[in-house]
Amino acid sequence: MTEEPNVDGYRPLLFSIAYGMTGSVGDAEDIVQDAFLGATRARRAGTTITDPKAYLTTSVTRLGINYLRSARVRRETYVGNWLPEPVVVPAGDPGPAEHAELSDSLSMAFLVLLEALSPVERAVFMLHEVFGYSHAEVAGIVGKSEVNCRQIFARARQRIAAGRAAPSPARRAEGAELARRFFDAVTGGDLDALLGTLAPDVVSYGDGGGKAPALATPLAGRQEVARFVIDLFRRLTEAGFGLRPAQVNGRPGAVLHDLDGRVASVIELDVADGAIQAIHGVVNPDKLGHLGPVSTMTQLDHPTWRSGLTP
């Protein structure tokens, strides 16, 4: 029997593609594992795989397309805002190997934009725009003609308009400094300092999935967001919650934890043009379990939650 090639080096790329397709850490890991198992079964059945990377990329992409087709109904009935499961790397840590190739373009805001695309459009757009595959390569992966893939890509780019904007090193440094000022302000209760970090049209999004308190609809505006965040973190501090800085989906952020170290929320900050443009907070416990034991914020009684948040 021919010795199976060592394909573990492809895992970071395959995870990134699967995560970009699904927005789920656990499902992305399952898809990558299924692709590896499928390749092993194919080789043992006598199939010759001359290019393992291409074979596995094709398998992961097609599994991702199938996943999205089955997940569409669940997404349409999701309670409140949908945000992807966060990929968290502790501050100052280069991150585990399986996440090493996670592109800056897979931020929460970008993945939410991709939700507007059909499964095939998402695959075509992401493979070409984010991972740099040629249209000919994409055609082979998704099983369509190169001309068709060019048309699909153009249509997808028009639909999401914003495209991708991978941060430069200077922009990353700017983001890290703004994040430091933001979290210093919220933990210190300094409203004026917090206002100085936010864009005038900043938007705050929360994902509780109907299982934890979260914004039912986005909250917009510098004053509105600042007042909400300051009051929320005052209550969190009183209840014993704390923050640990982290990189979240390639952006500055933090993990909120309770007194026992359990994860209660993950926060990601979108920074551009010298200000925080968006705040994404994931509190749905189903999306935090891959980070360790999960806490909740259900004991907090916030007036904004009573007037318009879920659950």
Automatic annotation (TrEMBL):
InterPro entries: ECF_Sigma-70_Domain, NTF2-like_dom_sf, RNA_pol_sigma-70_dom, RNA_pol_sigma-70_ECF, RNA_pol_sigma70_r2, RNA_pol_sigma70_r4_t2, RNA_pol_sigma_r2, RNA_pol_sigma_r3/r4-like. GO terms for molecular function: DNA binding; sigma factor activity. One of its GO terms (biological process) is DNA-templated transcription initiation. It holds the Pfam family Sigma70_r2. Interacts transiently with the RNA polymerase catalytic core formed by RpoA, RpoB, RpoC and RpoZ (2 alpha, 1 beta, 1 beta' and 1 omega subunit) to form the RNA polymerase holoenzyme that can initiate transcription. The keyword Transcription applies. Gene3D superfamilies: 1.10.1740.10, 3.10.450.50, Winged helix-like DNA-binding domain superfamily/Winged helix DNA-binding domain (1.10.10.10). This is RNA polymerase sigma-70 factor. Keywords: Sigma factor, Transcription, Transcription regulation. Belongs to the sigma-70 factor family. ECF subfamily. Residues 108-160 form the RNA polymerase sigma factor 70 region 4 type domain. Signal peptide: none annotated. Residues 8-72 form the RNA polymerase sigma-70 region domain. Residues 179-262 form the SnoaL-like domain. NCBIfam families: PRK09636.1, sigma70-ECF, SigX4.
